[in-house]
Structures are given as structure tokens and as C-alpha cells.
Design goal:
Layout lengths: L1 E4 L3 H5 L3 H10 L10 E4 L5 E8 L8 E3 L3 E9 L1 E8 L15 E3 L6 E6 L2 E5 L3 E7 L6 E10 L13
Antiparallel strand pairs: 1-9, 2-3, 3-11, 4-7, 5-9, 5-11, 6-8, 6-10
Length: about 160
């Protein structure tokens, strides 16, 4: 997992080229007003504009991905994100079509505040639990870039991480 800020040019400069390119796409001001949904990018990469209400952690499931790296940018609102290194067995089979496996709590999650302008990058060896209410449920607007892991695997972890 990496955490940074869209405003931190030095942090972004140390990231692999493919990841910097994704962050440039996610910085497009038009996405702030775009309707929720998926947008295809170059190759197998895509992004999603998400609008939702945060929930208590107990109502959500931790997840991991095998084919894609998640590049998440908070536009509006705030949530908590739980993180742990991949360990334990998923409580459901891997869904190849959705590129997701859900995990039992197993390892304790480390909690991070996710506020406007923050960036989180989750690799396939990261379990993450997004969408958790900070204090009470609230609306958030978030971008999630999906970057094929094959474009990053040779450059991971980045020196900036």
C-alpha cells in the first residue's frame, strides 16, 4: 500500500511511469462533475467515478485483487480505509470476472483516514477495506483507477513508497 497526496509533486515524481500516468488521468478536472460510472482508458486500464455513503466496518468486506492495482483518489468527503498484508483465506472464491476476493478479518487492519486530495494505491498483496465511516455515515465522491498489475510489477515497490 502507498499513501500520498495529489498535491505532493515530489511523491508523485518517485512513482513508476504507469502509476504517474494514471494519476494524471485521475487529476482531470472534468471528472469532478462527471456522472458515476466506468470509463475505459488505454489498454486494459479503466477508471470508475464512485458516489456512495460510507458505512460501519461491520457492514463491509475486506477485498484484494489479482490482476489490477487500485489507485484511489478522494474528491469529496472522508472515510476510513483498513489495510493489511495479504494473509489468510478468502471467505469466498476469487471472482475472476470482477477481479476480487473477499477476506475474513484474519490479520488486524491498520486504519487510515482518507480525505479529499489523498491517494491510496493498493497492490495485489494488499487487503483493503474501503468505504468505512469515519464518525458517522457520510457521502463521498471517489475516483478508482484500475491499472493492470503487469504494467507495474517490475517497478514495485517504488522507491518513493
Amino acid at each position: 500500500m502507498l499513501k500520498g497526496s495529489m498535491d505532493d509533486a515530489a511523491w508523485r515524481a518517485g512513482l513508476p511511469v504507469a502509476l504517474r500516468h494514471m494519476l494524471e488521468r485521475l487529476a482531470d478536472p472534468a471528472l469532478r462533475q462527471a456522472p458515476a460510472g466506468r470509463r475505459d482508458l488505454d489498454g486494459d486500464a479503466f477508471l470508475m467515478v464512485n458516489d456512495y455513503a460510507t458505512q460501519p466496518a461491520e457492514a463491509l468486506r475486506a477485498e484484494s485483487h489479482r490482476r489490477y492495482c487500485d489507485v484511489q483518489v478522494m474528491l469529496e468527503g472522508a472515510e476510513q480505509v483498513g489495510w493489511a498484508a495479504l494473509a489468510g483465506d478468502p471467505d469466498a472464491a476469487y471472482d475472476a470476472a470482477g477481479d476480487v476476493a473477499y477476506h475474513v478479518p484474519g490479520p488486524a487492519l491498520a486504519w487510515h483516514a482518507f480525505t479529499a486530495g489523498d491517494v491510496f494505491v493498493f497492490a495485489p498483496d494488499d487487503i483493503h477495506l474501503p468505504g468505512v465511516a469515519l464518525h458517522r455515515p457520510a457521502r463521498v465522491r471517489k475516483l478508482v483507477g484500475k491499472l493492470p498489475w503487469t504494467t507495474l510489477a517490475g517497478d514495485w515497490p517504488p522507491a518513493a513508497g
